[in-house]
Specification:
It is a single chain. The protein is of the alpha+beta class. The protein folds into three domains: 178 residues, Formiminotransferase-cyclodeaminase, Chain B, domain 1 (2-Layer Sandwich); 149 residues, Formiminotransferase, C-terminal subdomain (Alpha-Beta Plaits); 212 residues, Formiminotetrahydrofolate cyclodeaminase monomer, up-and-down helical bundle (Four Helix Bundle (Hemerythrin (Met), subunit A), Up-down Bundle). The chain is 52% helix and 14% strand. It is built from 18 helices and 13 strands. A hairpin with a 4-residue loop joins strand 11 and strand 12. The longest helix is centred in the C-terminal third of the chain and has 42 residues. The radius of gyration is 29 Å and the shape is globular. The mean pLDDT is 93.
Length: 566
């Protein structure tokens, strides 16, 4: 079961004083059990978005300390900025990332809110999934009136805070109020326009946002609103579900933006939001010049965008992950204002620890030298996985070359899909390069465990059994994954670009070497393991795959020779 992991994205009401921003961020840097992912200040909005992740208990403790520090350093009575706000820590959402449900995340949001209210006296409003009433769910409703309207809001029926002070006292005068919630992942996204007009930017924003605009009885902007039979104002729905948007002018940049919160990326993807803004801007005589992401974004969002724009070009989507990200950045102009560094803007890349994949981070020369050294790992298992990855890469290359072949313009999608399949196989085999060495290291660690007492002996044997089974299962997985290369290599040899048929053949040879090499690792690791049922099953599976690999490689080589000699 995956470890519980939640993300916290507090927005503090300071975006200009770097001393204050860093002092607040330092609270997270120094906190145990959490990782600071991003600190994204905005001068015009006078607001900084801070992003960190960790185990739930550690996250809410770190969030409490951040809220406390922000209240000490930020005086809301002196604050001004373009963005709506009501507190030193304006909002503090918790987002389930892995191993935890929304319902559980709501409990942590309430625990945090209760603690902040009780210990710091700051008024707390629970919103989104943590809201205590339907009318408190929407952040815009909770924050209505902003900081300047807090005293009046406290007195209104149904608008008192859930925790903390209900009076505009000295604490609230300085710290304001904070909205704490639990929500799905939200993408803060701004699209840049070639205009300085907020009104024209809003015209596009009203076209796209889910709640749209008020329907009016005439074409003039001041025409009376249309009412339904119950006297309620009628709205014209916008084009994008799960999107909130407004237009604003950013003096720092010298142009207007459409500022969006995409609250449901399943309904509205990042690229769909960009494309719809572009289309509506054109209708209104404007042009989209680029865009910017505020905070972080999940990797899948960028990969989906990259594939979308490649398909628009009628080009293969079977390119590397890095290339998909690059295409997304370039197509949406994400680097117009500042450099877009994927390692700093994509959540999964921020969480990567290079120490976990030391072999993949080596150059080819370094990998070869490390393999040739006196160290027993990396060994045949890791090399088998890497050779399999090269086989997948060669077959994928043929698919991409076939997709881009001028005389096959009508087959670009067919070959592109096959290239995408090859990329998937390649990436999995690359992951197994380090996994195989990790399995060997786990066996060595188990062997070194103490064995003085019966309890120590039992613990050592259990660890050794687990490590041995891992060391058998990983090369078995290498074999199974490498077997997928044959199907792609066969398709490329028979119907791919004939000028590259030899590459498909070499890909099949690599796959056979990977299967046979990985099976040797299965066999040697089974030799000293006394779980007969487990060993027999592994050897049986492996033997069948070796036979099939030999047969498939022979068939593909014969096909390649036939094409070469025809």
């Amino acid at each position: 079961m995956a470890a519980q992991l939640i993300e916290c994205v507090p927005n503090i009401s300071e975006g200009r004083d770097d001393t204050i921003i860093q002092a607040v961020a330092d609270v997270i840097r120094k906190a145990d059990g959490v990782k600071l992912l991003d600190v994204d200040p905005g001068r015009a909005t006078n607001r900084t978005v801070i992003t960190f992740v960790g185990a739930p208990d550690r996250v809410i403790d770190a969030a409490f300390q951040l809220i406390k520090k922000a209240a000490e350093l930020i005086d809301m009575s002196q604050h001004s900025g373009e963005h709506p706000r009501q507190g030193a820590t304006d909002v503090c959402p918790l987002i389930p990332i892995s191993g935890i449900s929304m319902e559980e995340t709501v409990k942590y949001a309430k625990l945090l809110g209760e603690r902040v209210g009780a210990e710091l006296g700051i008024p707390i409003y629970l919103y989104e999934s943590a809201a205590t009433a339907p009318h408190r769910k929407n952040l815009a409703t909770v924050r209505a009136g902003e900081y300047e309207g807090l005293a009046q809001k406290f007195q209104k029926e149904g608008l008192a805070p859930d925790f903390g002070s209900t009076e505009f006292n000295e604490i609230v005068k300085v710290a304001g109020a904070t909205a704490i919630g639990a929500r799905d992942f939200l993408i803060a996204y701004n699209v840049n326009l070639n205009t300085t007009s907020v009104r024209r930017a809003n015209t596009v924003a009203f076209d796209i946002r889910e709640k749209g605009r008020i329907k009016r009885s005439g074409s003039a902007i001041n025409s009376p609103p249309v009412k339904d039979q119950d006297g309620n104002t009628v709205r014209e729905a916008g084009l994008l579900k799960g999107v909130k948007a407004i237009g604003w002018f950013i003096e720092e940049y010298g142009f207007a933006q459409i500022s969006m919160n995409i609250t449901d990326v399943k309904q509205t993807s990042l690229h769909k939001a960009f494309e719809t803004c572009r289309e509506r801007a054109t209708v209104h005589g404007l042009r989209v010049t680029g865009s910017e992401l505020v905070g972080l974004v999940p990797l899948q969002v960028m990969l989906d965008a990259g594939r979308h724009f490649l398909k628009q070009q009628r080009r293969s989507v079977g390119v590397s992950e890095a290339e998909l990200v690059r295409i997304a950045i370039m197509s949406m102009g994400l680097d117009q204002l500042t450099e877009f560094d994927p390692k700093k803007k994509i959540i999964e890349y921020m969480l990567l620890d290079d120490a976990q994949t030391p072999l993949l981070n080596m150059t080819l020369t370094e990998f070869a030298n490390e393999t040739a050294s006196e160290s027993p790992a990396p060994g045949g298992g890791s090399i088998s996985a890497y050779v399999g990855a090269l086989g997948a890469s060669l077959s994928t290359m043929v698919a991409n070359l076939s997709s881009h072949r001028r005389v096959w313009d009508d087959r670009w999608e067919e070959f592109g899909e096959q290239a995408a399949e090859g990329q998937e196989v390649k990436d999995e085999l690359l992951r197994l390069v380090d996994a195989d060495t990790d399995a060997f290291n786990n066996i060595m660690a188990a062997i070194r465990m103490p064995k003085s007492s019966q309890a120590e002996k039992a613990a050592r044997q259990a660890a050794l059994n687990n490590a041995t089974e891992q060391a058998i299962n990983i090369p078995l997985h290498v074999m199974k994954t490498s077997m997928r290369v044959f199907d792609l290599a066969q398709r490329m040899a028979s119907s791919g670009n004939p000028a590259s048929v030899s590459d498909a053949g070499v890909g099949a040879l690599c796959a056979r070497a990977a299967v046979r090499g990985a099976f040797m690792n299965v066999q040697i690791n089974c030799a000293d393991y006394d779980n007969k049922g487990f060993v027999d099953a592994a050897i049986s599976q492996g033997s069948e795959m070796v036979k099939r690999a030999d047969q498939l490689e022979s068939e593909i080589s014969a096909l390649v020779e036939k094409v070469i000699n025809s």
